[in-house]
């Protein structure tokens, strides 16, 4: 197993939720970390470099790739965390082309564009790790508003596998982490909203969400720190490439 000490690490979406925990964990392990989001909300650990970007655009991805070259002199580990869905309710028929493009531009294209810019340097050095954060929805889509998101995550997963086949023989490992429900601040706010609407407690509303997901055998969502722990482990596990690691408390009902 290698170490993260002095590794140059890019984390996308590192200001909130899972990304913020990944940044904290990488920093604590001694890595040199650059992260990006549209704006800096809250504080980052000391010496972590923040670059403002909109990753849904080619220009935003180019800004980040340039910053990685200029400020870190290259990259050893890329963790693509940014992603999500803000699609309207109403089912597949309200997901117009704009919504589909939004889903793909947020959940697939940033990884494609950043890898295309940065992975050649890894290949040249014959080493590096790329971790794509997808979702169990890539395999087990929920109905309705997240249809485009789920399809985009499935595409990300397929792309990740393909990339792993191409560049693992050249020394660059490519892995996927697929979370189920994670209790991020945004998820907590969402549950609080449901609770307020229904006149329920937070725990009652949370149980309702878990039921809607078909149940979580572990009885709770994952914590952002637990997802970051898995990512940090994969970053230094030299024997692993081309695989998907599901962290969903057992939500997916098959092995
Ligand atoms: N939360 C869950 O239950 C869950 C479940 C399965 C999979 N996932 C996946 O796990 C990953 C992390 O999810 P999360 O819930 O932790 O996310 P989150 O709390 O919503 O944080 C998203 C991060 O991405 C940044 N971001 C958003 N839009 C951006 C843009 N256009 N350009 C650049 N950065 C942008 C955000 O900062 P700004 O808003 O300031 O830009 C923030 O730092 C995502 O890929 C998500 O799909 C999450």
UniProtKB/TrEMBL annotation:
Question: Is Oxidoreductase a UniProt keyword of this protein?
Answer: yes
Tell me which Pfam families the record gives: adh_short (PF00106)
Instruction: Provide any one GO MF term from the record.
Output: oxidoreductase activity, acting on the CH-OH group of donors, NAD or NADP as acceptor
Q: Which InterPro entries match?
A: NAD(P)-bd_dom_sf, Sc_DH/Rdtase_CS, SDR_fam
Q: Which UniProt keywords apply?
A: Oxidoreductase
Family of this protein: Belongs to the short-chain dehydrogenases/reductases (SDR) family.
Protein name (record): SDR family oxidoreductase
The scientific name of the source species is Duganella callida
